[in-house]
Amino acid sequence: MTKKIGLIVGSLREHSFNRMIAEAIPELEASVEYEQISIAELPLYNGDLDRGDGPEPVRLFREAIQRVDGILIVSPEYNSGIPGVLKNALDWASTPTKTAALLRKPAGLVGATPGVKGTILSQQQIRQTLEAAQAYVLPFQKMYISQVMDKVDAERRELTDETTRKYLQRYVQQFIHWIDQVPALEG
């Protein structure tokens, strides 16, 4: 059976560099199916609203995560950290604790930034949040894309840098292969 990977972009901006990177992933590794999982309609997390299935956008978001075999989060770094909209989405996906959509869900992290340091600090915070939610984060592998404006054609919305394309393809392949190893973590 073909694996299904959810792609979550940690930016709401339509022309986000990270959205361009996420859109490149299916063409780089076509052995699996992909589903774009939007965070745009999620309300701010509020425990008072987190009853039953929660608000309709939250229910749909949680169901989308549960439908896929793993999630790839492609996110920028804002002020040396995790974008607020992504943190909000991960908070919604981390409850209710015993049946959370993120519980034991394999996750990979990719980040692009115009800066020279990649998204190191943001990915550390995303990893920390995912681990607190008991998701399984791909260990030892990092995918930071620095100076992204030199690696994409913004007009065509394409990742054009061949070296980055190869590294991203390898990262996605490793993530897909790693998903098969996750059951051993539970044993």
From TrEMBL:
Domain (NADPH-dependent FMN reductase-like): residue spans on this chain: 4-147
Keyword Oxidoreductase: yes
Highest taxon listed in the record's lineage: Bacteria
UniProt KW keywords: Oxidoreductase
Assigned EC number: 1.-.-.-
EC class: oxidoreductase
A GO term, aspect molecular function: oxidoreductase activity
Membership in a protein family: Belongs to the azoreductase type 2 family.
Protein name: NADPH-dependent FMN reductase
Species the sequence originates in: Paenibacillus solisilvae
